[in-house]
Write a structure and sequence with these properties.
Elements: H1 14-26, H2 32-48, E1 52-55, E2 62-65, H3 71-84, H4 90-101, H5 105-117, H6 119-147
Antiparallel strand pairs: 1-2
Helix pairs in contact: 3-4, 3-5, 3-6, 5-6
């Protein structure tokens, strides 16, 4: 069950409100209310998960490691490592992903912690990325077939 948002009145300092209004003006898909809600939610998530930031992109806004890859990419790498070597213990999987990706272990653990709090969000993004990759691969294969390669 999704709770209805509760109306609330918030007073912003004039400089903050001016910056927020400029942000909303640049984001045509957001109202003042939705922008405020998103920014507060992300600020709280970043406070709970200090190595996590958020980034816009062609596929939408997503959680990302500070200075590193997107969370969905790390989770995908963990799943791939687990599938490739199911006998590995948890710490070994983290080590393998760190060694093959160049992402430090604390960052991999941060991605895991974020995923454990927001699994549906990350899994949905990972699923979309895999579907797009499969579509691109299929298109490339059709082209190669047509060219006789």
């Amino acid at each position: 069950m999704v709770a209805n948002p509760s109306p609330s009145s918030i007073r912003f300092e004039p400089r903050v409100f001016s910056r927020l209004s400029a942000f909303v003006a640049a984001q045509r898909d957001l109202s003042l209310s939705s922008a405020t809600s998103r920014l507060v939610d992300e600020a709280l998530r970043m406070r709970e998960h200090p190595l996590i930031t958020f980034k816009d992109g062609p596929a939408g806004r997503r959680a990302r490691l500070a200075g590193g890859p997107d969370v969905w990419e790390v989770i995908g790498a963990i799943r791939s490592a687990r599938e490739a070597e199911p006998a590995l213990a948890g710490d070994q999987v983290v080590t393998v992903v760190a060694e093959t990706s160049g992402v430090p272990v604390p960052f991999i653990r941060a991605a895991l912690a974020y995923w454990s709090d927001y699994p549906q969000e990350v899994d949905d993004f990972l699923q979309r990325a895999r579907a797009e990759a499969a579509q691109a691969q299929a298109a490339w294969e059709r082209q190669q077939d047509l060219l006789g390669l």
